[in-house]
Amino acid sequence: MSEKIRMGLVGCGKFARNFVSLFKAHPEVESVAVCDLIPERSAEYAAKFDVPVMESFEEMLKSDKINAIAIFIQRHLHGPLVIEALKAGKAVYSAVPCASHVEEIYEIEELVRKNRLCYSMGETGYYRACTIFCREKMRTGEMGDFVYGEAQYNHDQRHFHFENNQVAGIPPMLYPTHSTSMILGALDGVYVKTVAALGFEEKKLPHIFGREGQNLWNNPFSNTAMLCSLSNGGVARISENRRVAWSGPNSYISQFYGSDGAYEFSVTHHYFAHWDKDDPQKLHLDEITEQIIPKGQFEALSDPNLPQRVCNGEWFRHSSPIHNIGRIPEEYRDWPNGHDGTHHFMVDDFCRAFATGKLSPTNIWTAARFNIPGLIANQSALKGGIQLDVPDLGDPPADWEVLRLDGNR
Ligand SMILES: NC(=O)c1ccc[n+]([C@@H]2O[C@H](COP(=O)([O-])OP(=O)(O)OC[C@H]3O[C@@H](n4cnc5c(N)ncnc54)[C@H](O)[C@@H]3O)[C@@H](O)[C@H]2O)c1
């Protein structure tokens, strides 16, 4: 029998509390232990989730009771811990982003490739209903050639609960994967070749954003947009906004245009346009909302208060009809599923990758393609929007199969 996962979860903060029970209940997981630099936090997790506490990340690395590490520490700190965990021979599940420095991502890739280690970045955007829809339409060829796409992650700073303003002012493009993953996640094997980005210099939160020591990065930008040229000849506009008045939902593809088919979305309504197969003059425009939004939300479409209910996140923990619920372990199939029905897939793909020796769809090569464009975009924005080349780590090794269980077929 193959080895089961013995997970060491690092970082008992706000986000990881959504994942302990998922890891514990997964059939490929034998045990879960936790640690945090702040002992009260790990003690709270121990009481709440009935898991043992280990002294530290370092103790987890030394222990043969742990064969996998889940990183849930603050967003700018992932790279070094992922590298240490891989060097210790552990499998790694990492919350987004992958890392803050291009060099760290290269090192992670090298460790994974040379030692054939399991790494998966838990990126919600890859599993969002809009991404799955566009991915399926690209794979069937119904969209033709990809031409242009727009995606954004709007998360206003006032919804964050950073304990430290020095960290709160992180450049938005150091956390780019929610939006890049929705466009690139719909396009198999496509990567960003160049970026040019512009930042919005924040005026109303000078204690968080600014060029003079307000934060660890001397970062003045609360919002940044990048224009990307893609390896398939297409163009993408990606925005990471931390100070804008919009949420409905906050991560979404607004446009995804192909030569033969195109997708558009706003708030609750999703559309798919496509040319008639027999009449080249006729364009069909179908409303595909029922395929995308949760059943309960669809039933409420005539409610004039629906946009507000969406904005309030009423269906935040609901899956879409396009989600392949049948692939999720029985153990948590009826549980609420955070970030618009994506959490279960992120955990399941990591666990299946570990168990099968295949690659998670959000493996290090994919994660690098989602992450590096943002790191370069931040440099571009700091230089006034000059166009810069984006390094690419290439495709996964040809002899390492990628799991493909998303979609509803
Ligand atoms: N949609 C998403 O995918 C999504 C949403 C929210 C958060 N996240 C990610 O989840 C991660 C955690 O976010 P959060 O809001 O829970 O942060 P948080 O600040 O609430 O928690 C982080 C915890 O990590 C602990 N920690 C830091 N370094 C450590 C170390 N070396 N050893 C042990 N513990 C350590 C801290 O003490 C803290 O308790 C972030 O990387 C964030 O990007 C992802």
Write structural notes for this entry.
This protein has 409 residues and is an alpha/beta fold. It has 2 domains: 5-124, Rossmann fold; 128-324 and 364-389, Dihydrodipicolinate Reductase, domain 2, CATH 3.30.360.10. 30% of the residues lie in helices and 22% in strands. It has helices at residues 20-25, 39-49, 57-62, 78-87, 102-115, 129-140, 165-168, 177-184, 289-292, 295-299, 306-311, 338-341, 343-356, 364-382, and strands at residues 5-10, 29-35, 68-71, 91-95, 119-122, 146-154, 192-201, 221-230, 235-241, 251-258, 261-266, 269-275, 283-287, 388-389. The protein has a 9-stranded mixed β-sheet with strand order 13-12-11-10-6-9-8-7-14. A 5-stranded parallel β-sheet has the order 2-1-3-4-5, with helices on both faces. It is globular, with a radius of gyration of 21 Å. The model has no long low-confidence stretch (mean pLDDT 95). The structure holds nicotinamide-adenine-dinucleotide (NAD). Residues 10-16, 35-38, 41, 57, 72-75, 77, 95-96, 124, 339 line the site of nicotinamide-adenine-dinucleotide (NAD).
Look at the helices and sheets and give the structural class.
Answer: alpha/beta
Runs in which pLDDT lies below 50 for 5 or more consecutive residues are none
- Ligand set: nicotinamide-adenine-dinucleotide
Q: Quote the CATH topology of the largest domain.
A: Dihydrodipicolinate Reductase, domain 2
Domain module tally: 2
**Number of extended strands:** 14
Query: Strand content of the residues, in percent?
Result: 15-25%
CATH H-level superfamily of the largest domain: Dihydrodipicolinate Reductase, domain 2
Query: What CATH first level of the largest domain would be assigned?
Result: Alpha Beta
So how many helices? 14
Write the H/E string, N to C.
EHEHHEHEHEHEHHEEEEEEEHHHHHHE
> Would you tell me the overall average pLDDT?
95
CATH architecture of the largest domain, by name, is 2-Layer Sandwich
Please outline the major beta sheet.
9 strands, mixed
Helicity, as a percent range: 25-40%
**Major β-sheet strand ordering:** 13-12-11-10-6-9-8-7-14
Amino- and carboxy-terminal Cα gap: 29 Å
Query: Cα-atom Rg, whole angstroms?
Result: 21 Å
Shape by Cα distribution: globular
